């Protein structure tokens, strides 16, 4: 149990603190594949466990009625589907759900083992004092059938979106790769969906979406070589910069800077190369200063 608690602590803490840093309010939904296997047993369809989990894994996408229709097509009896249906919309507190499942799965050894594991997970989650909701959801299935115990999904509370993180426990998955006897817990983050949530809720920190701070005008090959040296110093100081890719007309290069909203333009011509300076122009005020690299860093910060 100590090893399980250690893994669980890392699992929940990773999920919670990552989304806390993002500023996304979440609910952590839990279930156990043994509970699902126990349910398949008591509704008289233990051989249909794969069909059941694959179907109910789609419940958020296609709705309960369509899940039931799919199960009917897969050969489940109407009685079995009618028995399963209320479990997939089971409500109440986690304790109330556990109590209902204990009554239902009393004659399933596998199901009762899943309840025992779920109670351990819920109690351990309580001990972590997470600010996020942790909810037992019997409709959570995770369609990948290598899961053997706890399964998890994370949903954002403030936007309509599917799960943004998922995972669970698997026993001996490594046996496929010739490493028998190893169990583990794995999670994966849905980068595209997390991106969509951050976009929808406007949660991007300003410094992560900042554009180029200064663009160097390209006067030619010799000047560009000097600009690249100055740019290396600026970037080392944390200042984002770029060099216009070709020696085009000044008007074109300035128009590019304006279109991108770049606040400063840097110019290194013959005079600047001779003096070892950079001409920095503030695009908002029009003010221009000749600076050393060190002075330019202070100005641009």
Name its key features:
alpha/beta, 13 helices, 5-stranded mixed sheet
Model description:
There is one protein chain. The protein has 301 residues and is of the alpha/beta class. Helices cover 49% and strands 17% of the residues. It has 13 helices and ten strands. The longest helix has 21 residues, at 2-22. The radius of gyration is 29 Å and the shape is elongated.
Oligomeric state? single chain
Strand content: 15-25%
Q: What are the low-pLDDT stretches, counting only 5+ consecutive residues below 50? A: none
Basic shape: elongated
Please identify, by name, the CATH architecture of the largest domain: 2-Layer Sandwich
**What is the CATH homologous superfamily assignment of the largest domain?**
Bira Bifunctional Protein, Domain 2
Main β-sheet, in a few words? 5 strands, mixed
Q: Report the average pLDDT across residues.
A: 88
N-to-C CA distance? 52 Å
How much helix is in the residues? 40-55%
CATH-defined topology of the largest domain: BirA Bifunctional Protein, domain 2
Question: Radius of gyration, Cα only, in angstroms?
Answer: 29 Å
Write the layout of secondary structure elements.
Blueprint: H1 2-22, E1 26-32, H2 33-42, H3 49-56, H4 59-62, H5 64-73, H6 78-88, H7 94-104, H8 109-127, E2 133-136, E3 150-156, E4 165-171, E5 183-189, H9 191-201, E6 214-216, H10 221-236, E7 241-243, H11 250-260, E8 264-267, H12 270-275, E9 278-282, E10 288-291, H13 293-300
Parallel strand pairs: 1-2, 6-7, 6-8
Antiparallel strand pairs: 1-3, 3-4, 4-5, 8-9, 9-10
Helix pairs in contact: 2-8, 3-5, 5-6, 7-8
């Amino acid at each position: 149990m100590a090893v399980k608690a250690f893994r669980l602590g890392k699992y929940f803490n990773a999920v919670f603190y990552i989304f806390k840093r993002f500023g996304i309010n979440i609910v952590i939904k839990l279930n156990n594949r043994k509970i699902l296997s126990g349910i398949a047993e008591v509704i008289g369809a233990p051989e249909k466990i794969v069909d059941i989990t694959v179907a109910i894994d789609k419940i958020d996408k296609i709705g309960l009625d369509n899940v039931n229709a799919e199960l009917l097509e897969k050969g489940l009896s109407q009685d079995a589907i009618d028995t399963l249906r209320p479990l997939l919309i089971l409500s109440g507190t986690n304790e109330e759900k556990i109590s209902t499942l204990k009554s239902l799965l009393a004659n399933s050894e596998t199901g009762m083992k899943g309840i025992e594991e779920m109670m351990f997970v819920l109690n351990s989650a309580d001990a972590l004092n997470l600010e996020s909701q942790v909810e037992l959801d019997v409709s959570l299935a995770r369609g990948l059938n290598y899961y053997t115990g706890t399964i998890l999904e994370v949903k954002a509370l403030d936007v309509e979106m599917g799960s943004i993180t998922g995972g669970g426990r698997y026993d001996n998955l490594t046996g496929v790769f010739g490493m028998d006897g190893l169990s583990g817990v794995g999670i994966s983050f849905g980068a595209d969906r997390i991106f969509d949530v951050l976009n929808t809720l406007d949660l991007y920190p300003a410094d992560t979406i900042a554009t180029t701070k200064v663009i160097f005008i390209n006067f030619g090959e010799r000047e560009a070589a000097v600009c690249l040296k100055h740019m290396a110093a600026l970037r080392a100081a944390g200042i984002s910069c770029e060099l216009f890719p070709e020696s085009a007309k000044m008007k074109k290069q300035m128009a590019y800077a304006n279109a991108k909203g770049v606040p400063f333009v840097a110019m290194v011509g013959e005079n600047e190369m001779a003096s070892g300076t950079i001409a920095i122009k503030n695009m908002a005020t029009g003010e221009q200063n000749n600076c050393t690299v060190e002075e330019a860093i202070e100005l641009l910060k």
